Amino acid sequence: MNLDPSLLRTFVAVHEAGSFTRAAERLHLTQSAISHQIRRLEEQLGRPLLQRTTRSLTITDDGEDLLPYARQILDALDSLGQRFRPSPISGEVRFGAPENFVGDRLPTLLCQFARSFPSVRLDVRVNMQLDLRALIRDGELDLAVIMTPGDSQEGTRIRQTQLVWVAGESFDLPKGSPLPLAFFPTPCINRRVGISALDEIGVKWQTVFTSPSQQGISAAILSGLAVSVLPREDVKEGMRIVDGCYGLPALPKASFALICNDEGKTAATQAFGQLILDLSKQAADAKLKRRGRR
Questions:
Q1: Which of 84, 101, 131 is the last residue of a domain?
Q2: Of 20, 94, 219, 285, which is the most exposed, with the fewest CB atoms less than 10 Å away?
Q3: Is 244 left (phi over 0), alpha (psi -120 to 50) or beta?
Q4: Predicted pLDDT at 1
């Protein structure tokens, strides 16, 4: 059976509008065209779908059975059209982010954007060592995700995180020894916040390990070589939060925020930025749902 989707769309419109006249207005057709299409659909199916009198319009049992199938077919066709419709947006988006924000989100982000906007070229830089603010300021990036103090109003906040002191399960600090630290190179909010908190209360420290990658810092922590500052959600198996141990003070919250180059506000950059915000919200909602099930 080869049904014309336009006939199904007319049938659904008549049912939802409650009359041929209102369905004709909705579909920008004449009332006689609506009647003709419904008649054609009934002929193809060999069943009456609507019972029409001068005062009322009711759907038959066969019409009730057809309705969910018709809606499912139309929804699938609309999704298919959206997927393959040529995008009017083109150009380039230059995006930067710290490694601890992107994580396993990057493939989903890039794949979804490439499917929606195949004419846009992406230039993505992911590194903990990049001075993303400077790259935005100098016009080398269009969009960037940065970490800011929790109360900062800079950019558009994506999500907030709690910074914590983290050590490996085997870490032990000999009495009287300075606290060994592992940090990303400057500029790094984790380094800045951690050292500032230690200096404020007079805790002795020394940097024993520096790495531009999240993997490097994790290795230093897991080996028991050093303590570091991480967002709470980055604490992995084999690590432990040591806030309050070894005289370590509590740390403030931090936020991930989206900043942009004002001169590079194009349709492509706005679309990419909105996708980042949408995916981050979806991830946050999913996290809340998982917590609710526990």
A1: 84
A2: 285
A3: left
A4: 73
